[in-house]
């Protein structure tokens, strides 16, 4: 009987989902494998995740609204041809109690930006920064904040 009481909490805790950078990257990797081709980039930024919103209710086991932005490159829709591999940003969020798995947040999207290659992708002091090369070879620098589920250019 004592063994059963010891194992009972483990059975309940096994269904909790903790969203972190690694989990957000994994979710987007699986997502991109379904919607895109040519996702095998060797860039260290492939599937890099940054936390853009803290959740609330963590102490109560909810952790609602925690959100990550994940960068990846791939050919969405598998169009094929020259120049179809593009830079993509996908949101992953905890939208239910921790007993509900995190999801790709499709009802929000990252703004369209003119960037061919990403050289830096980071989040510092509440500002998302993306540095890279534009389609004409020029250096580009984009900065955004994320407030109330909206991206605001800085």
How would you describe the overall organization of this protein?
By secondary structure, the protein is α+β, with helices and mostly antiparallel strands. It has one domain. Helices cover 18% and strands 36% of the residues. It is built from two helices and nine strands, in the order H-H-E-E-E-E-E-E-E-E-E. It has helices at residues 2-13, 21-35, and strands at residues 36-37, 48-53, 67-76, 86-93, 103-104, 117-124, 127-133, 139-147, 150-153. Strands 1, 2, 3, 4 and 5 form a five-stranded antiparallel β-sheet that branches. A four-stranded antiparallel β-sheet has the order 6-7-8-9, with no helix packed on it. The longest helix is centred in the N-terminal third of the chain and has 15 residues, at 21-35. The chain starts with a helix and ends with a strand. Mean pLDDT is 87; it is low at 4-13.
